[in-house]
Specification:
By secondary structure, the chain is mainly alpha-helical. The protein is 54% helix and 5% strand. It folds into two domains: 57 residues, no CATH class; 199 residues, no CATH class.
């Protein structure tokens, strides 16, 4: 039986207990003309990389790691709570206002939409998503939570402010209704993505159906349009800033994924040819 990269990581862990397998990265020395070293993937055979007795490998400590599902739970649970606090406890967050008016229907629709979105994300974390990597750097927990929790407070503070002036209730009902359709469409795309990869699988497949026939990252498309509708329904600048920041980051991920799929599925040597599609946000991108 041939030794695998996982075997190497286990033995290294026994010799150096601080460096558990998910904290390790082994790579081949750079060869002439190479710009990036080849990393050894866990589970693959060492012979796949022509590694044998006497071979030189480069070790890198990736630092403390934390599970993806743990990070996702906390980054989504925070906004669920933080946003609701401003809605349900206005006297705490707006102490200078003695006569706080009753909540406007738009504010109630906003907290319901926001809560549904993040509850859905938590559900997807544990029951839908299949992560290609088991862990990420521990520092990502604080970075991600800072982003999501901070924006939750920023948006909620203004939407639930005693001086908030709501737009047309009838228009808001329509916009939130369409936004909810985007939420369910986003869930559908995540289920499609889940079914592309069997449990434990790390390969790639061309996503198809329900938007993916036209857009590489249809899941981002529905999420972005949903939040644009939220910003329009509440008519607040913080909500627009929130979706602008989120869309900018998603655009970076989408562009990289689109390029990766086109590179993998190049139509050569029997491989499928990746079809022409929008990247993320038709008709613009």
């Amino acid at each position: 039986m041939q030794a695998t990269v996982s075997d190497l990581q286990s033995k290294f862990h026994k010799a150096k207990p601080t460096f558990y397998p998910s904290r390790q990265r082994f790579s081949l020395p750079l060869k002439a003309g190479e710009k990036k070293a080849t990393s050894l993937a866990a589970g693959k055979k060492l012979s796949d990389y022509d590694v044998k007795d006497g071979s030189v490998l480069i070790f890198k400590d990736l630092g403390p790691q934390i599970g993806y599902s743990t990070v996702f739970f906390w980054e989504y649970f925070g906004p669920l709570v933080v946003y609701a606090l401003f809605y349900f406890l206005p006297s705490v967050f707006y102490p200078t206002y003695k006569n706080i008016p009753d909540k406007h229907p738009v504010q109630t629709m906003a907290v319901a939409y926001w809560s549904f979105h993040y509850a859905k994300r938590i559900f997807e974390t544990f029951f839908v998503h299949r992560f290609s990597h088991g862990t990420m750097p521990l520092t990502n927990l604080f970075k991600n939570c800072g982003y999501y929790w901070g924006f939750a407070a920023f948006v909620s503070y203004f939407v639930n402010h005693p001086l908030y002036t709501a737009p047309s209730t009838e228009v808001a009902y329509i916009l939130f209704g369409i936004a909810m359709l985007c939420q369910f469409a986003n869930l559908t795309t995540h289920v499609i993505q889940r079914n592309l990869r069997p449990p434990g699988g790390k390969g790639y497949a061309i996503p198809r159906g329900f938007g993916f026939d036209y857009i590489t990252c249809a899941n981002y498309t529905f999420e972005i349009y949903g939040w644009i509708l939220f910003a329009a329904a509440t008519w607040t600048l913080p909500a627009l800033i929130f979706i602008t920041a989120g869309a900018a980051q998603m655009a970076i991920w989408a562009k990289a994924k689109h390029a990766r799929l086109r590179k993998i599925f190049d139509g050569k040597d029997g491989r499928a040819k990746y079809p022409k599609r929008w990247i993320m946000l038709p008709p613009f991108f």
